[in-house]
Every structure is written in structure tokens, then in C-alpha cells.
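Researcher: Please translate sequence to C-alpha cells.
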Amino acid sequence: MFLNRKKKKSFFLVLALLLAYSSIAVMINVNKDESVMTDVGRLMPTKIKKVVKGQEEQSMVNTILHANEEDLKISIAGKQHSQGGHTYYRDAVVLDMTSYNKILHVDPGNRTIRVQSGATWDDIQRAVNPYGLAVKVMQSQNIFTIGGSLSVNAHGRDIRNGSLIDTVNWFRLLRADGSVIKVSRTENSEYLPLVIGGYGLFGVILDVELQLAEDQLYRMRTREMSFERYTDYFKKDVQSDGDVKMHLARISTAPNTFFEEMYVTDYLVDDHQEKLSQHSDLKGERFTSTTKFLLGLSRDFDWGKNAFWDMQKRFFLSRDGDLVTRNNVMRSESEFMEYEGKDDTDILQEYFVPIDEYEVYIDDMKNYLQERDLNLINITVRYVEQNEEPAMSYSKGDMFALVLLINQGLSEKEISETGETVRGMIDITLKHGGSYYLPYYQYPTKEQMRAAYPNSDDFFDMKRKLDPKERFINQFYEEYGL
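Model: Translation complete:
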């Protein structure tokens, strides 16, 4: 499991790493050849026709109508943090939504916001924070577009609100024929479970009305424990305690404590909400250079993994009792998303496993990975409650979600080796009644995808019914839907 390719790097290379990681890398998703596009994973460079900025609604309608006239394919892109070709396709027109990003209306009385789909969660937080409001559901980073998050039906740290679909009141959808419809649970309702978690295959989400939550002051509670204790702790001290609103855990990937140690952080409603205003200023990025440097050491050295794990534990244990607002809990740093090595890349995997299977699942996964040469950097653990409203639901029961950060090489051999290991991890997950998240690289087989998503054939049939010319397309659909 650990780095068999022991890299004999000198002091000067470590110094170079320090210098390299002291600045923020910027991911460039379009190569020097502007007709070649990739995403943050950089494993699927593809020649496209062109990129069109989605700035005004009519211009996007015109783009769709022109595509129909010329029989062109359309893909939809935001920040492009999906890693499996979900946002582009060969010789397609890529509709870049990041400029379609206005906050349209905040309704403090009804706790809702209407926003264009290219806006980010950071944009929403800045708009609602002055009203004492916060987001209900989003990922642990706020850099993603709203449309992208809806397309993957994101979930996050909040254990009282499930996946993002629960917070959607309605949205407007630009369809393949150029028409625009309003979609809600009472109007054009057949589209809602298909579009949310539908990976851009049914049309362009133009704007959406989302439910908001009251911003609150939380007190952090951090505990260290073994993985065997985690399920009981979660049931008794987290799930059953109504004061706990958010939860996050990490399990060790360090060689010295691999898949043994954990630490958990809970966010409990504090008794002194009158102090909210003292903590409500939105925080910015902190410790980015240090964290990026330590992640660099973790990618290349076993001792770096051990050191990083120990430092993480000490840091979060030292914050036990700290006060933080809901909005600021959701403003985690995005340093995991900013790595661009010359010969390697970081990829994500996410596995969902029933909470009662967690202990034996971790044991099986540990035994499997100890025999594999996988450069596993980090694992976070979250909770997702059962929700079968989306057609492609990943949470058919109450699940723990394990998010794995993996560093891998870019060569064909290294891609093949990672793929074999990933398919093995998915087999273990399926054996325990779990599933996996779809926004990542095309390592799973079609059979694994169907086992994890038994409604997938119906989902793809509805795609062809509602978009018979397959105007909206991406490489994910080509791999698994055809």
C-alpha cells in the first residue's frame, strides 16, 4: 500500500517543494492548444470544437438553436471539478457557465435565494451573510458553481439536511429544442429527479431558487478515537443529539496508524447565540501555503504522511471548544483542488457504505489496500441520510460517505494500476451494500455502475426520450449510457 517506489530525494528537492507549495497553483483546464480541454484530474484531454461563454440567456438559447441547425453536440461546464469527462466531449461546443453568475434575489422572510447557475457558493454566502442567513447544503468547499453542484447532487457536513436536491424549490431549464421551462415538484416535475444529479444531460440550468437556513453560532467538539468506536459514537453522541448540526471525521492514511486512528469534529449549537455577530465576518483562506507544502510531502514520503496526520490531529484537537458560525464552517480551504504536478495528479473517489457496515467495511478495505501500491493521501468521513428522490440516488439508506484523495501518475501504466485498485475498492463497497459517487474518472466498469445505480437504465432511457437527438452529451454518458 505504501510508497514502494521509495523516492531518494535530496534536501534540495525538499527545499524546492517548500518553494513550490508556498504559492497557490492555478488549475488551467484549457491547454495551450485552446481546442483541447481537460478538467482538474487532467486524465482525459479531449479536442473540442469551441468554448462559448454563457453570459446572457438569449445568447445561450441561440447557441442551442445553432447547434440544432448544424447538428453539433453541447456540453456544459462550470469549475470543472468533475473528473470523468462530465463537462466536455470531443468536437462539442462547451457552454462555459461561469460568467452567468448573478445573485437575482434574496428573500430573508422566506429564507430563499434566487441565483444564476454560474454563481459560486462563495457568492451566495457573501449575499446572505448580512441577513443572518446561511446555506443549507453544499460541499465542504465554496468554490464550485451552483449549477455544477446541482448536476452532481452534492452533499456536505450538515447531518440534518441531506443532499442538495432537498433544498431546491424550483429552477428554470433550457432544453435541447431551445425552449425554457420552469421545473418544480408541481410543474414539469418529471425533470427534477433527472436534472438534479443528472450531470448536464437534460439541459442547461439557468437559475434556481434555493432554501436557506438561519446562520447560527456553533461550538466545535473534537475527539480522537479508533475506527471500531466510530459507529457507536456517531449513533449515540451525534445522530441522537439534536444540538449537533454538522459533523466531519477523518481516518488515518499515515503508515504508522493506517486505517486505525480517527478524529471527529462535531458542530453543536452554542448556548450564547447573542455572540453570533462577534464571529460572523466571513473568513478567507488560511494556512494555505503550509497545508499545500505538507500535502506535497505526503504525496512523496511515508514520513510526510505520518507528520501531516499528527499535525492535523493536534490542530483540530486544539480547536475543541472554539466558536464558529455556520457560514464559516462551510468556507473550508480549497487547497486539495489546486495541485498540478508535472508527472502526477490528484484524483478523488467517494464511497457510500451503510453505517452499520462501517467497522467490517473499514477492516476489509484496510486489508485490501495494504496489498496495493496506492498513494492514498487523505480520507474524510461524512454522513448522508437516505434519499431516493434523485433518479441516480447514491444514498438508498443512511450512509457514511468516505471521500478519498489519491495521488497517481499520468502514464498509461500508472492509470491502469490505479484503475485496477479502484475497481477492487468498489467491489468491496458493493459487497457491503454501498455505492460510489459518479463525478470521477471512468475507472468503474459498466457492471459496477449498474450495481451501484440499479435505476441507471431507466435514467439513460429518459435522457434519450427527453433529448432524442442527444444534443447534450459528455464522455460520462458515452461511457456508461450508450
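Researcher: Any highlights?
Model: Residues 3-28 have pLDDT under 50 and may be disordered.
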